[in-house]
Amino acid sequence: MARRSKAKKKQSRIKKFAIVSLLGVALCGGIYFTRDRIMAIFWSSIDNTLKIAGFTVKSIDVQVIKDSPNGSIPYDTSTLMKSLGISKGDGIFKLSSQQIYENIMMDSSIKSAIVRKKLPNVISITISLKIPIAIFQQETRLALIDEHGSFIRDVTDSPPDYPLVVGEDANLSAKRMLDTISQYEEIRKDLKSLSFIRKRRWNIEVSGLKVMLPEVGVEKALETLTILMRQPNINRKTVKCIDLRVAGNVIINGLKINKKAGKRALI
Question: Whole-prediction pTM value?
């Protein structure tokens, strides 16, 4: 009997403890949610007061910086405005500058952004655009890329203002090669495409010619190509390929040219 009595007392204590614990949890939860509700009402009241005082968004000013002498692709600011998550009449203090910034940077064509609140009612946004240097082809996809090889936006065709770049990781190495080619005006202005071969060397298409460049000594090969392109005997209809992969050798349409035979043999 004594053992049963002790067991009943123990069970009773456990039940009381469980009930008290549940009541404590319920009370704390009620206080927590009540506090949140009170705070929400408080900040809503503050926001409404500030709106009445005139601290509401009346205008959103967007300035686009084009930090390239060649300019950049056309940019439609109306697309940006839709992504900001801001409406005229919103309380300016309630808006998060960080959230606005994050919304802006979701646009892959934007390089950097600065967001400022100009009290009482203006949101000022300054953006810098990525500068395209080429069109990168990845299987059937065509995309503008910047100097870092980052994708700017997809395109449906290859704009004539930018060379086409193809090959594995070609987007990551294109800037260095294009900088090298830029030193040779006659090649640069007629450059149509660049192909990265086995991530080691480049083939280029210029003025209808396929030119195979070496892995090392690219500058010397481009100098030779410049000389060849100046020769009237290089007929673009008959000359399809110039192989400059081996230093000192010029192979045109599969035939090695003997430079020792003189300049006429070279051309």
Answer: 0.69
